[in-house]
């Protein structure tokens, strides 16, 4: 089983990249979301240099940005919201206070929402419901559980995940890889084979046959689940992105969907990777929670060909240690069962 470790954002610490490589990570993942393409590219360059210095065959994966709608700037940065109080959502870059309105970085809300839609903020810590669509530039919302609004956080629903043009955003990044050609390209919120075909076409147009990376399709919405077979067929590898999948679909079924997708990929002899919240407790302690050990064990027994470590390595002070823990669990299970 391959281990993919996520590298922290720019500026990157070379010693940590080296530590992850020496711990045995097979692939280093650089996220292009949340930072500029240029900053992310600098991280890729550092990663490439360290790999060359270490003389390993560690691969590089670039996780291209998706089209996400985000909350705009707030004077206080973060404000609490009252349970079931009505707030106004408007397209804007800034609002002095959410008591006036909550700003969203969109030109308008045409086709974004329907009354009753449940919209998650960030990773689902807070959500609101659409109470009334006043116009394309004003929507009334309520927070059933209260909570807070934090500037620059993404807002996501199943409708937004599948309707936004992620291909247009992702392909803007492809022009950056003339000198450094990553081994893998990951696409977010893949809802059909056409997204994968779009990116393959862009790579062919830009680079001809000089760069042919493996295309990874991240399944993280209902659209992706509904067309999972064509996505698995079109992609080189599929990624079960459990974070956003648990936000845009019924979170109680995420692991069930994981097992179904692993079974499908095994049947088709296609690679499948499981991502998100695998060894999160290692951020606080050296030995993972028993539930996480059980999770990783089941991922292996489900027939997954790889895992992605996200915050486990991107935020850890000693990321190589997490890679070693993952390898230890994987080696133990693989030695004990025929997987």
Descriptive keywords:
single chain; 339 residues; alpha/beta; 7-stranded mixed β-sheet
Write up this protein.
Helix content is 37%, strand content 25%. The protein contains 12 helices and 19 strands. It has helices spanning 14-23, 37-54, 158-163, 166-174, 193-207, 222-226, 228-234, 242-248, 254-268, 290-301, 311-314, 319-336, and strands at residues 2-7, 27-31, 59-63, 69-70, 73-74, 78-81, 86-91, 94-95, 102-104, 118-121, 126-135, 138-142, 147-150, 154-156, 184-187, 214-219, 237-241, 271-275, 306-309. Strand 2, helix 2 (37-54) and strand 3 form a beta-alpha-beta unit. Helix 1 runs parallel beside helix 12 and helix 7 (228-234) packs across helix 9 (254-268). The longest helix is centred in the first third of the chain and has 18 residues, at 37-54. It is globular. The mean pLDDT is 92.
